[in-house]
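User: I'll paste a sequence; please echo it back and then give the predicted structure.

Assistant: Echoing your sequence first, then the prediction.
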Amino acid sequence: MSEDYGVKISKDGVDVDTASAEDLVYSSKWSNFKIHSVVSGSVTTNASGYGAASVDSPLSYSPLFLAYCQDPDNTTRWSPALSGYYSLTVGSAHTMSVAYNVSTNKFDMVVKYGGDTKTHNFKIIVFIDKLTGTAANLDAIDDFGLKISKSGQGVTDTDTDMSFFSKYGNLTVNQSATVSASGGGETITHNLNYCPICIVFIREPYNTARFDPMPCGFYYGSPHAGGIARYYVTSTTLVIDYTVPDSGDDVNFKYLIFNERFN
């Protein structure tokens, strides 16, 4: 660390005095993703397959967030919802978009679903960490707990200036690995018996210097050949699915499954 004070916790079997950043479970030098709450919303598409709705943000500033959408045709599956991307659940291609609207302090949800009337349920994980806005103290949960401030801040400063605060949950990794898959996909068993927060990256097969967060679309080869990569999570598995022009190509994925749940 750059200072002679702070809190460091190393992984099991690693000396905290010599541990690299990636071998630390926790360091007060950096901020952590602190979960404020999970917001629920839903969108029902009309006969042409379009639907939109908004749900209030629980915070007064622009927060970091992650969003997932339930597959209306298979309610055990939840896929990440990202703005402006065609996220494919099994069987039907459709757009599932969530964006934070600064002017209304709401999360705007938009769905385009192939011409059918369907109800799409959303879960939005809202972090107290900010996209924009000034430091803030949030409503008290208890009058006691453990606080660790960020580097350069005091523990009497605001909630959003804390690196750790037992008032909130933090993202903690349950399992993480790099897998190489060919033929269209990979299934990872987690058996947590709930839907955990997950993040997946793909290394493009013909541009290995590049990692893309999933879901994503990309092109490579000559002539331009399209590829698409997506994933969904259930209460027992993380399923990574992709299409490439040559299904025999090995594709590398980096996934993180967190202990924290959204459903």
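The chain has two domains: 34-131, 173-261. The longest strand covers residues 119-132.
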